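Q: Fold this one first, please.
A: Sequence and structure below.
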Amino acid sequence: MAVRVFLVDDHEVVRRGLRELFEPQEDLEVVGEAGNAEEALDRVLGAKPDVALLDVRLPGESGIELCRDLRTALPELRCLMLTSFADDDALFSAILAGASGYLLKEIRGPELVSAVRRVAAGQSLIDPALTATVMDRLRGHREDERLAKLSPQERRILDLIAEGKTNRQIGTELYLAEKTVKNYVSNLLTKMGFARRTEAAVYATRSKLAQHPSD
């Protein structure tokens, strides 16, 4: 059976060019097209394509947001992103949205045809190393969110916990009562989602090493 392809681009001439590229291929069938995300959502659900070729930049909702919506509605759908610009942030977002590939529009016709066949067969056109980098970046964002929940005083106490200091030693250094330090520690553990201070200590140490790897 032919691979069913759906085209989404806000430029009619681009969609026409893509259709003319795919139609001569016996194993590919263009089953629909749309010029924006709203049109695409309605038409893709009816057409049930195997691969959706999405322009990253669309009027209104972006192609990346559309990819996320389509993958939610049709988990088996493979989305191939096309863009005129090499953009790390867009690539980051595309991977998180579940895209199977991210290609520049300067790609040659035969290479694009091959890319559609490959993603239809279940392959990913996104370098695994690139995906790993994105996942590391995502983890970094999550860690930053944890630290962002803390007050300046709690951040100072977390650093001292990482140095292995007791509540009494922290109180002496910060001129606080030991009971006050204990309350601070309890609050920061709750905010960060840790059950024990050792978890917070390990986290704080790793964060410092990530920020200052050569220290």
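Q: Good. Now the second chain.
A: Here it is, same layout.
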Amino acid sequence: MTTSTVAAKDILGIYRPGSSHMVGDGFPVRNLFPSNELDESVDPFLLLDYAGPQYFEPTDHPRGVGEHPHRGFETVTIVYEGLVAHRDSAGHAGVIGSGDVQWMTAASGVVHEELHEKQWAKQGGTLQAIQLWVNLPRAQKMSVPRYQTILNADIPKVQLAGGAGCLRVIAGTFQGWRGPAHTVTPIELYDLEVMAGGRAELILPQGQNTSLFVVRGLVSVNGSSDAGEAELIVCKRAGLSVVVEAREDSRLLILSGQPIGEPIARYGPFVMNNKVELVQALEDYKAGKMGHLA
């Protein structure tokens, strides 16, 4: 086994879900942050909700989250199982399924809904997904909203050395492959699968905050204690190298990003820099300035 000469990122800690709750009537989530109070260590990421896996009985009335607003950040939804339909007040709509990603930049404000896709809901099935909230810097919080549907077929899949597994590049770059997601600030987002006994080394940009969420399996990262399903391994900012060693067949979401380092003010679906801006966001939503769904 070759030993890397690149400085490794030390491990800050391994965290279990800090809370669990139902979002709407269709997304049973376990939250890793902000419930674990990791703000500075995961900046620019604001939230990680792990939905499912849970089986839903067939229904003629799709479950999910009805009309609700967002301002000041981006939502990133990654689907492992199931079908999720999106519709927003900016005129965007799409359906994402296994391996697909939805990247919505709410920015100055949109109203949207996220529901189980209608035909999938009628058949019933297992839902498994992750939603991230990604902060926007002050200069971009009131920019024009945008929406990206990123299909599995458009995400580069890179085979790891020695048949250890594979890595899908959703955002950023890996071994010269660039992910299709357009990000406002520098972000690396990878879907990593490592076979039992396999090893994967990731070299990440200088100064980024890096975390690894275990979707399934059992892994050690840079010599850490083993982490299992629904646990989050948070690295310290210094260093570049992250080495994943799989005890079992494992799947992880790697999230790494350049910290924004600005004040954060939150109120429900709004994330701004101060309370005055939060009040304005609420007033704008009530006044219909973020639009409504037909």
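Q: Anything worth noting on the second one?
A: The helical segments are 39-42, 118-123, 275-286.
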